[in-house]
Write a structure and sequence with these properties.
With 265 residues, this protein is of the alpha/beta class. It contains 8 helices and 11 strands. It has one domain: 3-Layer(aba) Sandwich (Rossmann fold). The model has no long low-confidence stretch (mean pLDDT 91).
Length: 265
């Protein structure tokens, strides 16, 4: 076992560097940078936009949101597609608003969610100042296959060509249907006598919706995958164009795909 670990360390030095960095940063620097990210929104007089809706809602992770905000500000997309609404929706809308006020670049956000309750939660708490920047889509995700691998697709997608895709949905338990008895959902498996035999956790989600947009994507096509490493690995192996891929494991983690310049032949 020790020899195997040594071999893995030698074979994958960069990945091991990222893992070591994750351990150190998460343990010693997470709270500091979380407070610093929140303070950024306070100084910008934008913290009021991040109000909690339902009591069961996960509190905003300002480190993630600051990273997302910075990417929208720097890349200045005119068309953003989001899978999974929430505080990210508010963050993207704030950044699009800022881009318009400073550079007169008008961007719009199309937010897709397979859970109507949480979509309405986000819609209801969205500040009136941001309403013109966001259009919501409720669309159920369903289980399917891509090259004999389990994936999910949404039933209906926005008819757009996005410059920027933010992938943080769907949730496994929102995915409907099954294939050969397999689902993405968590459930309790019972024996014939009705007694609990096994409690199955939800399956790691792999959404293939991004692939539907890639072949017609613009030259500045960019994808941000938030914490979904299985989905990021799937995209890395399935996307057709060449991309600059950056992986960050610390502070929750994210993976970005930036489309390389593709000259016509």
């Amino acid at each position: 076992m020790k020899l195997k670990k040594i071999i893995n360390f030698i074979q994958y030095p960069y990945l091991n560097y990222l893992l070591i960095k994750k351990i150190i940063f998460d343990k010693y620097f997470y709270d500091f940078f979380q407070k610093k990210a929140k303070q950024f929104f306070v100084k910008n007089n934008e913290i009021e936009y991040f109000k909690i809706g339902k009591n069961s809602e996960i509190k905003p992770d300002f480190l993630d949101l600051k990273n997302l905000y910075d990417l929208i500000i720097s890349r200045k997309p005119r068309c953003v597609l989001e899978f999974g609404s929430g505080f990210s929706t508010i963050t993207i809308a704030l950044a699009l608003k800022k881009n318009y006020e400073k550079s007169k670049i008008l961007g719009k956000l199309f937010s897709v969610d397979g859970n109507e309750k949480w979509l309405n939660n986000t819609r209801n708490k969205l500040h009136v100042n941001l309403a013109d920047y966001v259009k919501f889509y409720y669309s159920k995700p369903y289980i399917s296959k891509f090259k004999n691998q389990l994936v999910t697709y949404h039933e209906v997608l926005p008819d757009i060509s996005p410059n920027f895709i933010y992938l943080d949905g769907p949730a496994p338990d929102d995915v409907i249907n099954s294939i050969n008895g397999i689902t993405f959902n968590s459930k309790t498996i019972e024996k014939e006598d009705g007694k609990i035999f096994f409690k199955k956790n939800s399956r790691r989600i792999v959404s293939a919706d991004v692939l539907m947009y890639e072949s017609t994507s613009p030259s500045d096509f960019f994808i941000l995958v938030d914490k979904r490493y299985s989905n990021a690995n799937f995209l890395e192996k399935s996307l057709l164009f060449d991309y600059i891929v950056k992986k960050q494991l610390h502070f929750g983690g994210s993976v970005t795909f930036e489309k390389k310049y593709q000259p016509y032949p």
